[in-house]
Design brief:
It contains 8 helices and no strands. By secondary structure, it is mainly alpha-helical.
Length: 140
């Protein structure tokens, strides 16, 4: 998904350069904000769903460019980063509340392999998933 975002940004930059400048990026239509806000809520409800830039933009009834621009302005991160963080938060809760193995949590959270999950988890929370689990595990 990150490649999709880069491609959209590159295309938008090329169009802006062709037009001789940038449009006012501080103005966001309220209906676009409402649509992206609904999408954010959907990501929070189902972070493990297959969420590409195209599908998220389509769900918000916006072009990928407008969706990406609005999303970043509202959240401060790209949709890819937001989805990844939502998946990691969900995984952290599962490690705390369920007896599932780390490998199962990683795969169920949408990560293709455990090493990517471990690296992303450590970057987000500052500890490995196993250390998180030891520190935060609730008695089940």
């Amino acid at each position: 998904m990150a490649w999709e975002e880069i491609a959209v940004k590159l295309a938008a930059s090329a169009l802006d350069a062709d037009r001789g400048g940038r449009a006012d990026v501080n103005v966001l239509p309220l209906n676009a904000v409402a649509r992206v806000t609904r999408t954010i809520r959907a990501i929070e409800r189902h972070p493990d769903a297959g969420l590409s830039l195209q599908s998220l933009a389509r769900g918000a009834s916006l072009s990928p460019y407008h969706f990406l621009r609005t999303f970043e302005r509202l959240t401060g991160v790209t949709p890819h980063q937001y989805v990844r963080r939502a998946r990691l938060r969900d995984a952290a809760l599962r490690l705390t509340d369920s007896p599932a193995k780390i490998v199962d949590v990683a795969l169920d959270s949408g990560f293709g392999d455990v090493s990517n999950f471990n690296r992303a988890f450590r970057a987000e929370f500052g500890v490995s998933p196993s250390r998180w689990e030891r520190r935060h595990r609730r008695e089940i």
